[in-house]
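cron nightly-structures :: item 1 of 1
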Amino acid sequence: MLAEDSLSDEARTLIAGIRGLQAPGSIYLRGSVLEQAEPFLCADLDLFVIDGPSEPRRLWRALTELTARPLDVKWLTSDALGSHCVFSALLAHRSLHVSGPRLELEEQRADADFCWRHWVEYGVADFPSHLQCADPHAVLDFKRLVRCYGVILLLREGRFTRDVGACIEYAGQLRREDRVRLSELRRALEQRRTLRVEVRALKRQLVALFDQHWQP
């Protein structure tokens, strides 16, 4: 994971603010605000709060005062982590400990079970056929859709990523027109254009690729 002195000014400011709250539980920062120098414009502030306060509203309000970004907070208990493969992998490999007790996290093997759980979590079969680019929720659907290419990358080449930009680039390696379509859709979402974009062809492509390469 990145060292704190290599993070963006935004990330370092957020980390200092969160530590200043002295909140109960363990707080981890994840996502594009942590990993990218220039995060996706519509990106949420992604956090894990493990064994946090029994009444989280006060902490939620305090967190909202630290950023203009929407919050995506996963409130979990340490006992429940074992049943959340995707969250456990994110905590172990893609998150930065910010405050509270540091958890003892096991490395996650990128095996068939890991692959299947991520595919189910992203839920490509349940995607809408169209995305409304002006709808804030469309950003979440877009990221789930794009990250399915990370699962395909794992199946085909034994490598895995959740990074949106890397997934779009890999989509382009498979079919150039998909990279063009996804890049245009990303810009439309960032700009909150009033566009309705069909994604059925991308869904069909992803399902076909998964069915072709999946070996339980």
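cron nightly-structures :: done
The beta strands are 26-30, 45-50, 71-76, 95-99, 130-132, 196-198.
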